[in-house]
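Weekly puzzle thread! Below is a chain. First person to post its structure in token form gets bragging rights.
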Amino acid sequence: MSNADKLIIFDTTLRDGEQSPGASMTKEEKVRIAKALEKLRVDVIEAGFPIASPGDFEAVEAVANTVTDSTVCGLARALDKDIDRAGEALKGARSGRIHTFIATSPIHMERKLRMTPDQVVEQAVRAVTRARQYTDDVEFSAEDAGRSEIDFLCRIFEAVIDAGARTLNVPDTVGYAMPHQFGQMIAALRERIPNSDKAVFSVHCHNDLGLAVANSLAAVRNGARQVECTINGLGERAGNAALEEVVMAVRTRPDIFPCETRLDTTQIVNCSRLVSNITGFPVQPNKAIVGANAFAHESGIHQDGVLKSRETYEIMRAEDVGWTHNRMVLGKHSGRNAFRARLKELGVVFDSEEELNEAFARFKELADKKHEIFDADLQAIVTDTNIAQENERVKLVSLRVCSETGETPKADVVLTVDGEEEPGSAIGGGPVDAAFKAIESIVNTGAQLQLYSVNNITSGTDAQGEVTVRLEKEGRIVNGQGADTDIVIASAKAYINACNKILQPRTRAHPQKADV
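Winning reply:
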């Protein structure tokens, strides 16, 4: 592909996607997702905001040292300390990018930055110049560009291109733009900026009005050649443009979009499931491309048409986005090498034999409970194994719950806390409520339950249940996950996982709340 024909896919699941309350990821989880994005052949992976906290710095550094086929990007405000921190985190990257930004809308400059337009331009140029000391690949974003004055955008973009920025990002930060308006803005910027041919125009759209994908595609039609997006549309508030929707729209309608991506779209479903599994944000069944019903046909008319000719009701093939590779043809008699090989195909590589052995033991345990093991089950096993190896001060030893008609449910639990076994009991409104209260009677976190969500990982009555628990304490929000064929045990695992996070020292501030 020529540069004019290539659409660069910039994935910010690990940065902007993580800003969803409760979606915070560990360093190890970020590396797992980054490997999956690399296998998907994403062009740029925005790994985080290095200045936000030591933990965020370490996560960006770990991704930069792991990924080799995609460019790894770190976000930085237009401040020297941010840019230096990002440069340090990306030092080990085979291909690194610094993404620096400053607000350009009148309301942001006046009320947030309290700077004049001249000062904003000066700081933007200084930031790009400093970032060029670390890498030639510098991206500049005009925060809240959707509500910025076009004349000022032309001025600041021209200045940062002269300073060395090679990607110009036009964010619809608050999801305010309409597609026709946003497309016209991109066209006007490209036409009016004298040196616009020296930079790639990018867009970063939020979904507050449900228009993130539509706005992104309108921008592509008007010359934008980078789209910033996330897996499953994850992101703060209503989320970001969904990567899978942008990519498949461009691929399905070449008559409309004169460009193409380099993505291996058969990896989309696996990426979607991995992100959902790690963050605890389930994908709604009717979600485009990756929802369970995206290629399902219940209407008799539809079924008849598809059987006669797929194209009557399907505009793309399910297998093109990865729906044909959902089943693992392994069972309880399968060996360790076959298990390792299938997980490698899913983008999971174990750092040690100990990790492999622990995951394999969990696989065997699950294979004894259910006849068919699916790829989604494997993702859950790996997540469960990683949880078990992460900072487990509190572990589940045993759980007994009594629930019968006309009687108050009661739970008896035994935990190990810092290596010491402790029993606890409680009654509750149901078996899960009783189990949570019994666990809390031992750990005494004082946290408030904000969310309890159950999602079946696969189909069938023997399916694993995946539970997400969200706890809040003193403004800190954590997510816990657990999976098991017994939903009460899965719930207890999820609650304990969240408790372990609440009990550990805060090493990573929430990206939106970091005191930087």
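Puzzle host: Confirmed. Bonus trivia for everyone else. The first strand starts at residue 8 and ends at 11.
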